[in-house]
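Me: Here is a favour to ask of a fellow structure person. Could you put it straight underneath, so I can go through it closely?

Assistant:
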Amino acid sequence: MSSAEERQVLTLAALAQTTRLSIVSIVAESGAAGIAAGEIARALHCPASTLSFHLKELSRAGVLDARSRGRFVIYALQPGVLDELAQFVKGLGGTRAAEGKRRPARAKRAARKGRAVDLDQLSMFGD
Protein backbone atom coordinates (compact mmCIF):
# COMPACT_ATOMS: atom_id res chain seq x y z
CA MET A 1 0.00 0.00 0.00
CA SER A 2 1.42 3.38 -0.98
CA SER A 3 1.81 6.25 1.47
CA ALA A 4 -0.97 8.13 -0.36
CA GLU A 5 -3.31 5.17 0.14
CA GLU A 6 -2.31 4.91 3.80
CA ARG A 7 -3.09 8.61 4.26
CA GLN A 8 -6.54 8.09 2.75
CA VAL A 9 -7.19 5.11 5.02
CA LEU A 10 -6.35 7.29 8.04
CA THR A 11 -8.67 9.99 6.76
CA LEU A 12 -11.51 7.53 6.18
CA ALA A 13 -11.01 6.00 9.63
CA ALA A 14 -11.08 9.43 11.26
CA LEU A 15 -14.31 10.34 9.47
CA ALA A 16 -16.04 7.02 10.16
CA GLN A 17 -17.85 8.31 13.23
CA THR A 18 -20.93 10.53 13.43
CA THR A 19 -19.55 13.00 15.97
CA ARG A 20 -16.43 13.51 13.89
CA LEU A 21 -18.45 14.04 10.73
CA SER A 22 -20.48 16.66 12.60
CA ILE A 23 -17.27 18.34 13.77
CA VAL A 24 -15.89 18.42 10.22
CA SER A 25 -19.15 19.89 8.96
CA ILE A 26 -19.09 22.67 11.57
CA VAL A 27 -15.42 23.42 10.94
CA ALA A 28 -15.97 23.45 7.16
CA GLU A 29 -18.79 26.00 7.56
CA SER A 30 -16.41 28.30 9.44
CA GLY A 31 -14.16 28.60 6.39
CA ALA A 32 -10.43 29.24 6.36
CA ALA A 33 -10.62 31.40 9.50
CA GLY A 34 -11.52 28.32 11.53
CA ILE A 35 -13.53 28.01 14.70
CA ALA A 36 -12.67 27.77 18.39
CA ALA A 37 -13.07 24.43 20.14
CA GLY A 38 -15.55 25.99 22.57
CA GLU A 39 -17.82 27.03 19.71
CA ILE A 40 -17.74 23.50 18.32
CA ALA A 41 -18.64 22.12 21.77
CA ARG A 42 -21.60 24.51 22.06
CA ALA A 43 -22.85 23.64 18.59
CA LEU A 44 -22.69 19.89 19.28
CA HIS A 45 -23.69 19.99 22.96
CA CYS A 46 -20.66 17.79 23.52
CA PRO A 47 -18.62 17.45 26.74
CA ALA A 48 -15.14 18.98 26.53
CA SER A 49 -13.35 15.67 27.16
CA THR A 50 -15.27 13.90 24.38
CA LEU A 51 -14.74 16.78 21.96
CA SER A 52 -11.05 16.92 22.80
CA PHE A 53 -10.64 13.24 21.93
CA HIS A 54 -12.40 13.63 18.57
CA LEU A 55 -10.49 16.81 17.67
CA LYS A 56 -7.22 15.05 18.49
CA GLU A 57 -8.10 12.12 16.21
CA LEU A 58 -9.12 14.41 13.35
CA SER A 59 -5.92 16.44 13.76
CA ARG A 60 -3.75 13.31 13.93
CA ALA A 61 -5.30 12.04 10.70
CA GLY A 62 -4.51 15.34 8.98
CA VAL A 63 -8.14 16.38 8.51
CA LEU A 64 -8.01 19.39 10.85
CA ASP A 65 -5.36 21.99 11.51
CA ALA A 66 -5.12 23.25 15.10
CA ARG A 67 -3.53 26.60 15.91
CA SER A 68 -3.38 28.64 19.08
CA ARG A 69 -4.84 32.12 19.25
CA GLY A 70 -4.28 33.45 22.72
CA ARG A 71 -5.91 31.04 25.13
CA PHE A 72 -8.10 29.49 22.42
CA VAL A 73 -7.38 26.67 20.00
CA ILE A 74 -8.76 27.35 16.54
CA TYR A 75 -9.55 24.46 14.22
CA ALA A 76 -9.73 24.67 10.43
CA LEU A 77 -9.86 22.08 7.69
CA GLN A 78 -6.53 21.15 6.19
CA PRO A 79 -6.61 22.58 2.66
CA GLY A 80 -7.40 19.98 0.03
CA VAL A 81 -7.73 16.98 2.34
CA LEU A 82 -11.38 16.32 1.46
CA ASP A 83 -10.70 16.92 -2.24
CA GLU A 84 -7.88 14.34 -2.13
CA LEU A 85 -10.21 11.89 -0.40
CA ALA A 86 -12.91 12.47 -3.01
CA GLN A 87 -10.43 11.81 -5.83
CA PHE A 88 -9.19 8.67 -4.08
CA VAL A 89 -12.70 7.28 -3.67
CA LYS A 90 -13.59 8.24 -7.23
CA GLY A 91 -10.52 6.35 -8.47
CA LEU A 92 -11.57 3.17 -6.71
CA GLY A 93 -14.25 2.56 -9.33
CA GLY A 94 -11.68 2.67 -12.12
CA THR A 95 -9.39 0.24 -10.31
CA ARG A 96 -12.16 -2.29 -9.78
CA ALA A 97 -13.32 -1.99 -13.40
CA ALA A 98 -9.79 -2.69 -14.66
CA GLU A 99 -9.55 -5.78 -12.44
CA GLY A 100 -12.84 -7.04 -13.85
CA LYS A 101 -11.32 -7.22 -17.34
CA ARG A 102 -8.90 -9.94 -16.23
CA ARG A 103 -11.63 -12.56 -15.85
CA PRO A 104 -11.52 -14.43 -19.19
CA ALA A 105 -9.41 -17.23 -17.66
CA ARG A 106 -12.31 -18.05 -15.38
CA ALA A 107 -14.67 -18.26 -18.36
CA LYS A 108 -12.24 -20.57 -20.21
CA ARG A 109 -11.98 -22.92 -17.23
CA ALA A 110 -15.75 -23.01 -16.83
CA ALA A 111 -16.19 -23.72 -20.55
CA ARG A 112 -13.76 -26.66 -20.35
CA LYS A 113 -15.81 -28.09 -17.51
CA GLY A 114 -19.05 -27.50 -19.40
CA ARG A 115 -20.38 -24.82 -17.01
CA ALA A 116 -21.71 -21.32 -17.64
CA VAL A 117 -19.99 -18.46 -15.88
CA ASP A 118 -21.17 -14.99 -14.94
CA LEU A 119 -18.22 -12.64 -15.48
CA ASP A 120 -19.84 -9.97 -13.30
CA GLN A 121 -19.97 -12.32 -10.31
CA LEU A 122 -17.49 -11.53 -7.57
CA SER A 123 -14.85 -14.06 -6.71
CA MET A 124 -12.92 -14.24 -3.47
CA PHE A 125 -10.06 -15.92 -5.29
CA GLY A 126 -9.26 -12.96 -7.58
CA ASP A 127 -9.31 -14.98 -10.78
Observations:
- The first helix runs from residue 3 to 15.
- The radius of gyration is 22 Å.
- The chain has a mean pLDDT of 83.
- Residues 3-81 form a domain with the Arc Repressor Mutant, subunit A fold (CATH 1.10.10.10).
